[in-house]
Amino acid sequence: MRDGQIVMSAYDHNVKAGNEGDICKHPALIAALDKPIADSVNLVRYADVLAGYATNPLNTGGEWKQGIGIVAGEHLVTGNVHVTTWAEWAKLRTRPQAGGIYPGSAWFALQVGRVRNRSLELSLWDTGALPLQSLNDCFSGNARIGACRNQGRR
To answer: Which domains does the chain have, with CATH numbers?
Structure first.
């Protein structure tokens, strides 16, 4: 708080990538998209506000150490099909190391479409120039990518 106003700090996807939230979010995202994409005869639309980077480097100080750094291992690929899919796509059979990468949500969504041989219309937004560049580099031609303004909260 500064001068009685709440100050929002920027959300850094590279710091958060692979944390405890992603362990829950990404298998759930794959599960939520799988059947509708598989059953659809129409184009499926996927929108993500504050999409972040297409892929995130696993930095030394990142929160991934308390997330995928703890749960990774062969046990992830022997149970639920959606957890197995997530673990395989994120290369989590072995413990990740600093210097590796962890995909963002839009990347996982696109993979579900590819596996199901269905087109996905991606609409992705972020507030930062670097995440937008990453999205453009990865999804060029497969997505509408745009900047959204960070309005903050009052």
So the answer is: 13-147 (3.40.50.150)
